[in-house]
Amino acid sequence: MKRRSFIATGLGALATPAFLRGAFAAEPGAQLPIPDVWDLSDGAKADLVALAGRTGFLAGRESPTIGYSQSYLGPVLRIERGTIARPRLRNDLEIPVTAHWHGLHVSGAVDGGPQLAVTPGKDWSPELEIDQPEATLWYHSHIHEMTGPQVYFGLAGMMLVTDPDARGDPLPSDWGVDDIPLIIQDRAFDGDGRLSYSAAGPNGMMGFRGAQILVNGAIRPNASVARGLVRLRILNGSNARIYHLAFEDGRRFQKIASDAGYLTAPMEADRLTIAPAERVELLVDFSDGISARLVSAPDTNAPMMGGGMMGRMMGGTDPEGVDGTGRFEVLTFSPDRPPSDTALPTTLPVGPGRIEGDPIRRRVFDLNMHGPGGMMGGGGMGGMRRGGRMGMALAINGQPYDMNRIDAEVREGDVEIWEVRSDMMQHPFHVHGTSFEVLTANGGEVDFASTGLKDVALVDQSMEIKVRFDRPALEATPYMLHCHILEHEDAGMMAQLVVKG
Ligand code: C2O
Ligand code: CU
Ligand code: CU
Question: Which residues are within 8 A (CB) of 280 and not within 5 positions of it... i.e. 6 or more apart?
């Protein structure tokens, strides 16, 4: 089998994965790279190697990058419900890394959080017991204070949970033809075509944003897809940017799945918001054969200060618009491949449903951007010393992240209501080890983006979620709760949770 022999070559920087053979489009509009799928469902061994490479994002120029078994990003890992997946991570880099299985319901001991750092030259072989509905997940490195740069330079990939008993009407399933993975990221380049990154100064507050939009590692590529019904698995793999996606021609689509799996029925819409780390799956009808452009409205998420947003002060981080409204291109689709005859499903495969059971406890998590001293440097020099970020103190419930402190303890199987509150801007709140249901947003109804079970949800001002943990996470390897704006996470907007039986 092609993939097997690829794994057998031992990888390293010497092997050239198919994903890279002329695959990275060095010009806007070049072909969308389709990552290889590694099937771990039959207990197959899969060696992920964190390695350093060079990637040509811009024509004729290369950037140092890092990836899992390839120079940038990683293969798509397919794992099957009811089996044990046995990935192995080897670290060929000179920095500690992890592979955190974002969205996977596994115990804290194998979830790849910061405590599970793999030091240079070492490896890690977790056993992952897969038991959750079909869903599109992802994996990424999760080293404290380094998650932002490590994901930015490439340590991330998509993951698919499949379920042989999922049933439902058939969905498009021809990988790269009518079943299309889309990892959307924004990046910035210096004059030599190298990725540039900094979490200093305002980037620490805003979150890092770049003016170039990449999909699967290529700048604003073109996807050649089937002239029919196409499934898009969209992952916002950006550090901080929120996308407000729509087709430029206004074409409608069906949302069929959220972070944790299928909805009970398709929901039709013509736009959607996707925050960092969120996934959404859509069905789009391209049977008209007409090329279509996916665009995004600008991301206006920025700290409110002195009555205004600081975002517009920053400049230079917004992609070039396609029209006068500031909308920018993400990628284009050319429906030029023969269609399969998949019809719009009326019955979706069994999804995660809702969180059952009566809540027995209520907790509040305040996502703080300023300390008790007050707004933005209101703490004076004290504030400066505390946060080091223009008086900011990024924290949860007033406590910046501390790897040696457990912030909350939950009992396995208990159903809880958590109220999550945002400070100064919107924060995508993520919980490890489980999925949750959003009950209310800003005291009212939940919007389109937060329907279906989630593992990350964008908190505007406040949000109530219903959550339950079914796997343990003990003190040595607790679960993380954090803002998924990676610069916020790295600066301390993260807490630790243990789950006990
Ligand atoms: Cu996707 Cu704790 O992260
Ligand atoms: Cu996670
Ligand atoms: Cu945040």
Answer: 234, 255, 257, 258, 272, 274, 449
